[in-house]
Specification:
By secondary structure, the chain is an alpha/beta fold. It is built from 19 helices and 14 strands. The longest helix is centred in the N-terminal third of the chain and has 25 residues.
């Protein structure tokens, strides 16, 4: 990296999962719109053809006259090529295929267990983690070998276990996880604030919040705008709009399959006194199965959605066609800000700025006072030159802590299960999970775990089949 005139030039970024069809294009657009950085992006993917397509797309973007950030995209074929002499590593991979995710999400439905996402908590999130953890073991070992001083930014789910695995394998790694769910809740508060106070176009990042929790189950215990306590504003809004929820005017960051009326958030606020800070479809999966995900009719009542894997497959088909058009020149990437903060965080770590943002990292500094220090938590942190400084978030209130603790315990169980190929630990984690434990008995869990692991054996390390056969 070279610094010239308040700019960072020759920044080297390795993109693991560089064939990404969708998020990668947003990342490329954000880079092209940032004038203070330029350099090289090395695209590494087991699907080399997809990475080559993104190489073409990325270089087309950088050649646009109005692309002020200039980057050279190149496809590489090994960890060594990807990581040597690198400054930043981006991880955005799909663990397995949507066929495996079909089992993760829909197989439990035969037991009456419904999942609105299936990639973080619940049976789907845990089985996905068994596939993902070995991949992150390999990534951590490669970073340790070839790029021990690089910053590693993860976007893959299950976020908490991905970050936890990186630190388990390479404790000195400089890794963190980024997630935009907190931004969505800030946007919701911005919309309510604008309506209640008669103010227009409040910037999302001027909604100041204290973030505490775990990924996709984050909470605010304070929120303000220009000195105004937004808890009172939020409470008044919920009192008036609890039944119909909230329709946001600016929902460009949402897909219709991900949209919600925030009624789960409203209900959690009334019950627990904190602002739940993730999309309703994520929040629901951390709660007891009969509460928000009892059946499709209950989901409809709470006005969020079940993101089916059939929809994901159709969406992938559409993105593959878009990739073809972008490569051929039939279509161009629109250079519009994504609303993500990844580029701003990289800029801050380069020393060009300072920024406070939510981040997933181990609780080593005790940023959440009443969670274990080995837990991976989501709180705010200050990003500056080559440093992340966690901001003390305080303690989680006991009533909310009781909701979070089973999931923190399950992170330990699933990580150990994945590393040791221990089916019994997976069964224990299933029995602990609120989405599962009130819906099925112990013998049914044994069958469910056995069948779901069998359905994903193709993407598990050798040895799992022998454990199932015992």
């Amino acid at each position: 990296m070279i610094y010239k005139s308040n700019k960072a030039e020759d920044v080297k970024i390795a993109y693991i999962g560089g064939g990404s069809r969708g998020w990668a294009w947003s990342f490329m657009a954000d880079l092209a719109l940032e004038p203070s950085m330029s350099g090289t992006i090395r695209l590494y993917d087991i699907d080399r053809e997809a990475a080559k397509a993104n190489e073409v797309i990325g270089n087309k973007i950088t050649q646009m006259d109005y692309a002020v950030g200039k980057w050279n995209y190149t496809t590489v074929d090994s960890w060594k090529e990807a990581l040597e002499d690198i400054d930043f590593v981006i991880i955005s991979i799909l663990p397995g295929t949507f066929d495996e995710m079909d089992s993760d999400v829909h197989y439990p439905e035969r037991y009456g267990i419904y999942q609105s996402v299936g990639d973080t908590a619940g049976p789907g999130g845990m089985i996905r983690a068994l596939r993902t953890i070995p991949m992150f073991v390999e990534i951590a070992e490669a970073v340790k070998t070839y790029a021990p001083k690089a910053w590693v930014i993860n976007y893959t789910n299950p976020m908490t276990l991905c970050v936890k695995t990186l630190y388990q394998v390479f404790p000195e790694i400089k890794a963190f996880g980024c997630c935009h769910e907190v931004f969505g809740t800030q946007k919701m508060l911005k919309t309510i604030c604008e309506e209640k106070l008669g103010i227009e176009n409040i910037p999302r990042n001027e909604i100041y919040v204290n973030v505490l929790g775990i990924n996709h189950f984050t909470w605010f215990d304070s929120a303000s705008y220009k000195g105004i306590d937004l808890f009172e504003v939020y409470r008044e809004y919920i009192d008036k709009h609890y039944e119909e929820g909230l329709d946001e005017k600016d929902a460009n960051w949402l897909n219709y399959m991900f949209a919600c009326k925030h009624r789960v958030k409203f209900d959690l606020f009334n019950r627990y006194g904190l602002i739940a800070a993730a999309g309703d479809r994520h929040l629901a999966e951390f709660m007891l199965g009969e509460e928000y995900l009892k059946d499709p009719e209950t989901v409809e009542k709470w006005q969020f959605g079940l993101t089916t894997v059939d929809w994901r497959k159709e969406d992938l088909s559409n993105r593959l066609e878009k990739s073809r058009k972008l490569v051929s020149g039939e279509e161009e990437v629109k250079l519009e800000p994504s609303g993500e903060e990844g580029i701003l965080l990289i800029k801050a770590l380069c020393g060009l700025d300072r920024i406070v943002s939510n981040v997933n990292i181990p609780n080593t500094s005790g940023q959440i006072a009443n969670l274990p220090k080995n837990a991976v938590v989501e709180t705010n942190a200050l990003f500056e030159r080559d440093a992340i400084r966690p901001i003390y978030a305080g303690s989680i209130p006991e009533n909310v802590l009781e909701l979070i603790e089973p999931h923190v315990e399950n992170h330990e169980l699933i990580l150990e299960a994945a590393l040791t190929k221990n089916v019994k630990l997976v069964e224990q984690a299933f029995l602990n999970d609120p989405l599962i434990k009130t819906r099925v008995n112990e013998s049914e869990v044994k069958v469910l775990v056995n069948d779901m692991i069998k359905n994903t054996l193709r993407y598990l390390p050798e040895g799992w089949k022998e454990q199932l056969d015992k």
